[in-house]
Amino acid sequence: xxxxxxxxxxxxxxxxxxxxxxxxxxxxxxxxxxxxxxxxxxxxxxxxxxxxxxxxxxxxxxxxxxxxxxxxxxxxxxxxxxxxxxxxxxxxxxxxxxxxxxxxxxxxxxxxxxxxxxxxxxxxxxxxxxxxxxxxxxxxxxxxxxxxxxxxxxxxxxxxxxxxxxxxxxxxxxxxxxxxxxxxxxxxxxxxxxxxxxxxxxxxxxxxxxxxxxxxxxxxxxxxxxxxxxxxxxxxxxxxxxxxxxxxxxxxxxxxxxxxxxxxxxxxxxxxxxxxxxxxxxxxxxx
Length: 287
Ligand code: PAF
Hints:
Elements: E1 10-12, H1 15-24, E2 30-35, H2 41-53, E3 56-61, H3 81-91, E4 95-97, H4 101-104, H5 123-126, H6 130-145, E5 149-153, H7 157-169, E6 175-179, H8 199-220, H9 226-238, E7 243-251, E8 266-274, E9 277-285
Parallel strand pairs: 1-4, 2-3, 2-5, 3-4, 5-6
Antiparallel strand pairs: 7-8, 8-9
This protein binds pantoate.
Pantoate binds near residues 34, 67, 134 and 138.
């Protein structure tokens, strides 16, 4: 359906309600865009892909406590439901699924989805709860909403790899669409967490995309040693006082195993703590 035909996004928070609505869409294609809210242009881009591809689109907003460790930023994760609803209505989203914690994790909830291997790298090393929480909630959302298509951004490259692996391994009948990362005009990768940065921290955060661009140039000039490229990224980011590098990974984009040399298609992925926010960014280099 097109945006012009839509006036209102229906907001539902129970499983019964969302099932009734999605039952009514049977025979038509349904796209799901799972989010944790505080929607930005990166999310809007995912939603537009779903609106273009599918007859109906459900967006979910659920700040999933199970993907945060106790020391992480769950309590300060940004939210603004009325602003999000306005944005969804402005582009003609059919339904917002906005469950509360008890709906997703009722008392007695005991199941976790664990994807092995790729979760041991990058963010999985320092955020042990993250991917178990993500895989569990995404599978729940798939089972509740029952879409044929689901849309995820490549900014969370590892998350996408985990969701693709889970979907393949468990024969889940949902087509996973990868949507390229979207940047602010100055290069900062769009993220809800950017709103927790002060203006000064935001300037420092530009060192992430700057270091990735610099690496691309170096690779184009024939520098392919991961050690050298990693050191160079480190120098650019560490030159901004107060930045704390969690990891710089130069790895295979599928297995996420580290590479000593940039040969063939290679992922450079970074995580850096700046003030209250832990930011991630990545780019693909090589053929
Ligand atoms: O990318 C996110 O916002 C979350 O990790 C997701 C996929 C909605 C699961 O909570």
